TrEMBL record:
Spans annotated as Disordered: 39-62
InterPro entries the UniProt entry points to: TPR-like_helical_dom_sf, TPR_rpt, Ycf3/AcsC/BcsC/TPR_MFPF
Bias-annotated ranges (Polar residues): 53-62
Signal peptide boundaries: 1-43
Highest taxon of the lineage: Bacteria
The protein's name: Tetratricopeptide repeat protein
Assigned keywords, A-Z: Repeat, Signal, TPR repeat
Length: 596
């Protein structure tokens, strides 16, 4: 849903929790102040029915108004907020009931229709000219729909009525990465007369805009003035703005001092602690960073999360021993973060050279990190020359739904390490346990061919085609295998032509078709399709085929050009190298000389 609706739904929250800020970006998560409910309503969520409230201007609603209200509520529940808006709107116009007007505004926000939002907020403002909730929603809608002139007029009106606009800087925080929106906010603020910028909420908004524009010097001046003003509220994000601006200006010591001061006012703030630790670590003040981490009065759950963030930073900057000590000192209750802690402990141990213990620790990691842990264990087992343990580890750790993805990843690792035998063994074991996995069988078919077991490749591909006879990928693979491994060119072309009919834009299929035509002696047609494949994808094997056809057509210079281009991208491709050695070996000599 549009972010202004999300902000509107988070009304009246005074102390929102904010995520940690990252270097170069101020990522401030906050809740806006106005709305009818403290729980945000996702897009498409029906508005809950409410008890019928009496009219504020009379003791009871007339019977016809009660009936109209009931009918509007029924429409809301049956047909949703878009359909219910109009009957509620007519009812509010008649009754001028403030409670119903606020209800109408909820419905308009749920409808996500700007016209409805504008009509409902205007109506509520006409009933209560000082309703901050209505002004907040309407202003945010104008900003979201990029109407800066109207937004400036409305913002001026809000300030003139002495209605608070402290929702505005928080709204900017939520949307700091939305460039188009921030540009609209910038234009809106720029059009305000100078006197309006004395408003503390406007000045706080100015600071956000200045930071977003990279004007760190002005941001520093603005935030310092705000922090010096005793009337300024919501100062925690201002310490972040000031610290990051100082850091960008090269004053990291000042940035550290600012965050330390902020923490003295907000001792449980992880969003101030995180950048402080980052600045300290990058300044080489590891001991001071550890002291700052240990001395912060965090809740137990926040302490665990801060430990994870801090340890990750320490590991990334080459301080695994300190990270390990930090993680080991955590209490037994890790608030559901056991796997994240275990992953980092294992990583720290590995970086300290204790691979065997790292593997043991990583094997205990599960949950959402299971797949990452499995891959990491496999790498470490290779480091320890224990690669024969990998396959059983993978199959024992991996959940059924993740088998194709994980096995494919580990097979790729085996093949990169020149252990095709282990890759094939893993695929065979996985297919024994999960015989219906087409993805694994297809990978096995390709691997068998690369190992010279093309008869197995053909058998696997025919098995797959029995299940999916129109699959272009399987048809092409079978056709190309027959084309290159057997003398059954006609049978091969039958599969390839069928694949081309299914997917005439796939460069691999076009290449197979062109190569098949070449083997049939149809050079002109072969050149046409191979050129088409090459223009679509400049792959080494396509280049090898296209160059050979050009060579046979006596276009030697053009063939050499294609091969040279393919060699630059894939200098180790075996088919390409074999083709050039066979037809123009001097080209390889020239390429070697050029690279020396």
């Amino acid at each position: 849903m549009p972010s202004y609706l999300h902000t509107f739904a988070y009304a009246h929250k005074k102390s929102p929790t904010m995520r940690s800020a990252a270097t170069l970006f101020l990522i401030l998560s906050s809740a806006a102040l106005f709305g009818c409910s403290s729980t945000p309503q996702p897009a498409g969520t029906p508005v809950k029915p409410q008890k019928i409230a009496p009219n504020t201007s009379t003791t009871k609603n007339p019977n016809d108004q009660i009936e109209a209200l009931l009918e509007a509520e029924f429409t809301l529940q049956r047909e949703g907020p878009s359909k219910a808006f109009q009957p509620f709107y007519q009812l509010v116009k008649k009754t001028r009931d403030e409670h119903l007007a606020e209800r109408l505004m909820q419905i308009s926000a749920a409808s996500q229709i700007n016209m409805n939002i504008e009509k409902s907020t205007d109506l509520l403002i006409s009933i209560d000219p000082f309703n901050e909730q209505a002004y907040a929603l309407k202003l945010q809608m104008l900003l979201q729909s990029h109407r800066p002139d109207e937004a400036t007029t409305l913002l001026s009106s809000i300030i003139d009525k002495d209605v608070s606009v402290h929702f505005l800087p928080l709204y900017i925080d939520k949307n700091i990465r939305n460039t188009d929106l921030i540009n609209t906010v910038t234009r809106t603020l720029a059009q305000l007369p100078n006197s309006y910028h004395n408003n503390l909420s406007v000045k706080a908004s100015d600071a956000r805009v200045q930071f977003s524009a990279g004007d760190y010097k002005t941001t520093t001046q603005t935030t310092k003035a705000l922090l010096a003003n005793k009337k300024t509220t919501d100062t925690e994000p201002l310490y972040l703005l000031l610290a990051y601006s100082q850091d960008q200006l090269g004053n990291q010591k000042s940035a550290i001092s600012t965050l330390e001061k902020g923490l003295s006012h907000f001792p449980q703030s992880t969003r101030l602690l995180t950048p402080l630790l980052e600045f300290l670590v990058h300044s080489g003040e590891i001991k001071k960073a550890v002291e700052s981490y240990q001395n912060t009065a965090l809740t137990h759950s926040d302490h665990t999360q801060a430990s994870i963030t801090f340890s990750n930073l320490l590991i990334a900057t080459g301080h695994p021993k300190t990270a390990l000590a930090t993680l080991r000192a955590l209490p037994e209750n890790k608030y559901g973060l056991e796997n994240q802690v275990g992953y980092l402990i294992a990583t720290a141990l590995s970086d300290m050279g204790e691979k065997a213990q790292a593997i043991k620790e990583m094997k205990a990691v599960s949950g959402v990190l299971n797949t990452h842990a499995t891959s990491q264990i496999a790498l470490w087992l290779y480091d320890e020359h224990r690669e024969n343990e990998i396959n059983s580890m993978v199959l024992s750790r991996t959940h059924r739904e993740h088998i194709p993805e994980v096995v494919t990843s580990i097979c790729r690792l085996h093949e990169e390490k020149q252990h095709n035998d282990l890759s094939l063994a893993l695929l065979n074991d996985a297919l024994t346990a999960y015989p219906h996995s087409d993805a694994l069988r297809y990978r096995k078919a390709l691997l068998e061919d690369s190992m010279g077991n093309w008869q197995n490749t053909i058998a696997d591909l025919k098995h797959l085609l029995d299940k999916k006879p129109q699959d272009a990928q399987y048809l092409n693979a079978l056709g190309y295998t027959l084309l290159t491994r057997t003398k059954n060119i006609d049978e091969a072309m039958h599969y390839i032509e069928e694949a081309y009919q299914q997917d005439p834009k796939d460069p691999a299929i076009i290449d197979s078709l062109g190569w098949g035509l070449f083997l049939q002696g149809k050079l002109t047609s072969a050149s046409f399709y191979l050129k088409k494949a090459w223009n679509t994808l400049q792959d080494a094997e396509i280049g090898a085929h296209y160059g050979e056809v050009l060579w046979q057509q006596k276009a030697h210079n053009q063939a050499a050009y294609i091969w040279e281009k393919a060699l630059k991208e894939s200098p180790q491709n075996s088919l390409l190298l074999e083709t050039i050695k066979r037809l123009s070996p001097s080209l390889l000599d020239n390429t070697i000389k050029d690279n020396q």
